[in-house]
Backbone:
């Protein structure tokens, strides 16, 4: 499934590389003891180091290093036992030091891969070039006063992982799949919450276009896109813009652009700096970061089961199709829920109920697995009531709706609403007679050879029994009666 765009000069291919900035889950900042939690009152989480008071010295936070290494391991990446911190120099009001401490030539994590899953059921490995640790900047607030700008330094110095991909992505869909997969992995690892709305994960999107088989052309970088959907829209808009530039005889200039969500276009922000503009040099306040091999090896053995491994286990252990397994492992909570539900039950039926009626009911009430009023044990009880013929499948859907609305257990809903399946053949036969007597014309048609009407009679009998008839017994009774 190749994604191409048509121009006047032929077919164009889109080339995409993503730089993901992921805020590290840690109590304190990368080089100071100030709190790294989100949402505090402005400037209440700022140490002298973060505010760049003269003479203050950064001290590396071991937990942030641990999280970066665990992320690298989760991305199947090479861990560099020696890495180094550099100063990336630039002026901005929310960067009091006048430089950002980052890693340039020697990042903590080298190359790795992420396997992405596409809508047509195929998957594709995407190269990860590197992961490095760096500080976040503060925040300028321009909307608090008509004449002044305010600075909030709470975020200044918070640890970020910048995760750079190879230019391996070829469509908006692939870019979206990459970001979702990245987010899933980070959440499983507990190294970043992946919350794009709150900005704890953001992406810079590099886009170029070319005709098939050509070398790469010049790229543009779209900064700080904060949702998967916007990333996909921005790529499409930017690719179309570049095609027009090339086809009009111009040349795409390497630059930094912004995605204007309202207008669905990208706008030029500034010409792109090259690395030498930042005058990178090793931070003289920090020693090279040296990791012990044993420590890294221990972190590797302590990693949780990651989505790819869980997915193939679900396929083998529960016999699930690849699509179901993919949906069920997308969030850790969903996977845990499923595993509880499926254990000791028909696993395919469990998957169908979870992904179908249960997700739909949660959706309708604006909830998800995390705050579901129905636990896996409760949903399991519903499946059990079906399995032992206490209720039929149609009634089960109705019971599930009630469970999601009220939080009651399945058996409580069945008892309260009197929904037990009717297996009393006397009652079923009576309903059959009543339906046949009420539809003499249909009965005549059936006798005249319209076999299809059998289904009609089944439906009518079920209806006469308020949906509670045992479907197998109703079928049997009708067959017996109609010959
Ligand atoms: P910079 O600091 O200049 O942004 P990085 O190395 O951090 O550079 O990131 C470069 C990003 O651009 C990578 O994700 C890479 O895959 C991507 N990239 C490089 N060349 C191209 C290209 N021709 N088209 C699209 N993306 C590209
Ligand atoms: Mg970059």
Residues:
């Amino acid at each position: 499934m190749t994604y191409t765009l048509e121009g006047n000069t032929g077919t164009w291919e889109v080339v995409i590389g993503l730089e993901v900035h992921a805020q590290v889950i840690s109590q304190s900042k990368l080089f100071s003891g100030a709190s790294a939690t989100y949402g505090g009152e402005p400037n209440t989480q700022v140490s002298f180091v973060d505010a760049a008071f003269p003479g203050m010295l950064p001290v590396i936070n071991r937990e942030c290093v641990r999280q970066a290494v665990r992320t690298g391991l989760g991305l199947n990446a090479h861990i560099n036992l020696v890495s180094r911190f550099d100063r990336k120099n630039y002026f901005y009001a929310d960067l009091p030091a006048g430089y950002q401490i980052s890693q340039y030539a020697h990042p903590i994590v080298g190359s790795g891969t992420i396997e992405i899953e596409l809508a047509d059921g195929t998957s594709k490995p995407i190269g990860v070039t590197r992961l490095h640790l760096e500080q976040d900047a503060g925040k300028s607030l321009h909307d608090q006063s008509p004449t002044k700008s305010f600075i909030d330094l709470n975020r200044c110095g918070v640890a970020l992982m910048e995760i750079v991909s190879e230019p391996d992505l070829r469509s908006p869909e692939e870019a979206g799949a990459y970001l979702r997969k990245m987010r899933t992995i980070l959440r499983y690892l507990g190294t970043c919450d992946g919350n794009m709305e709150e900005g704890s994960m953001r992406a810079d999107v590099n886009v170029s276009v070319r005709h098939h088989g050509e070398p790469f052309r010049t790229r543009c970088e779209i900064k700080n896109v904060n949702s998967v959907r916007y990333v996909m829209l921005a790529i499409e808009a930017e690719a179309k813009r570049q095609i027009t530039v090339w086809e009009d005889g111009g040349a795409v200039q390497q630059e930094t652009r912004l995605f204007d969500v309202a207008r669905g276009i990208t706008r030029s922000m500034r010409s792109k700096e090259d690395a030498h503009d930042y005058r990178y040099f090793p931070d003289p306040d920090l020693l090279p970061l040296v990791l012990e091999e044993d420590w890294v090896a221990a972190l590797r053995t302590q990693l949780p089961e990651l989505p790819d491994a869980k997915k193939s286990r679900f396929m083998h252990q529960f016999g699930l199709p690849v699509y179901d397994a993919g949906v069920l492992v997308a969030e850790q909570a969903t996977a845990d829920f499923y595993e509880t539900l499926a254990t000791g039950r028909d696993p395919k039926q469990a998957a169908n109920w979870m992904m179908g009626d249960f997700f739909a009911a949660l959706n309708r009430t604006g909830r998800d697995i995390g705050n579901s009023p129905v636990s896996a044990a409760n949903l399991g009880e519903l499946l059990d009531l079906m399995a032992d013929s206490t209720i039929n499948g149609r009634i089960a859907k109705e019971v599930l709706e009630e469970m999601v609305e009220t939080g009651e257990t399945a058996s409580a809903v069945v008892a309260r609403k009197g929904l037990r399946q009717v297996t009393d053949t006397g009652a079923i036969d009576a309903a059959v007679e009543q339906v046949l007597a009420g539809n003499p014309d249909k009965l005549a048609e059936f006798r005249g050879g319209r076999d299809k009407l059998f289904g009609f009679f089944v439906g009518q009998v079920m209806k006469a029994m308020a949906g509670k008839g045992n479907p197998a017994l109703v079928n049997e009774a009708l067959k017996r009666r109609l010959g």
About this structure: The chain has 15 helices and 16 strands. Residues 19 surround magnesium ion (ligand 2) (CB under 6 Å).
